[in-house]
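Researcher: Let's continue the batch. This sequence belongs to FUN14 domain-containing protein 1, and it's 126 residues. Same format as the previous ones, please.
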Amino acid sequence: MGEAVDKAKSFISRYLGDVDKSDTTKQILIGAGSGWISGYLTMRVAKTTAFAVGGGIILLQLASERGFIKVNWSRLSKKLEKVVDRVESEISNQDRAWTDKVMDFFKNNTPFTSGFVGGFLIGTAT
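Model: Same format as before. Here are the structure tokens for FUN14 domain-containing protein 1:
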């Protein structure tokens, strides 16, 4: 996986260069394009995930109603609460350094940030 990351960094640096040293128009266009792609992909993934989870729950309920399986819903609920608690604790214990770097980048590149936000909103609408 390290090789793929290196190739992606090489691609980005070769075609986009150093975004914060670019002129304002290029920053806005790069931000809008990457925002639109991110928003579009986010909506596609969200719809697919919602369909899969919702369909799975419906199938479980139908199978339970028809007597094919017996679901202990209270036990399942308790297990899910434990998983949610574990995920929340893992997220809260993660290093905040990368978020600080992202926030610094967005603060220092206002044209890129505004383009990204606008593109993201357009991407989620399409």
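Researcher: Any comment?
Model: The first helix runs from residue 2 to 16.
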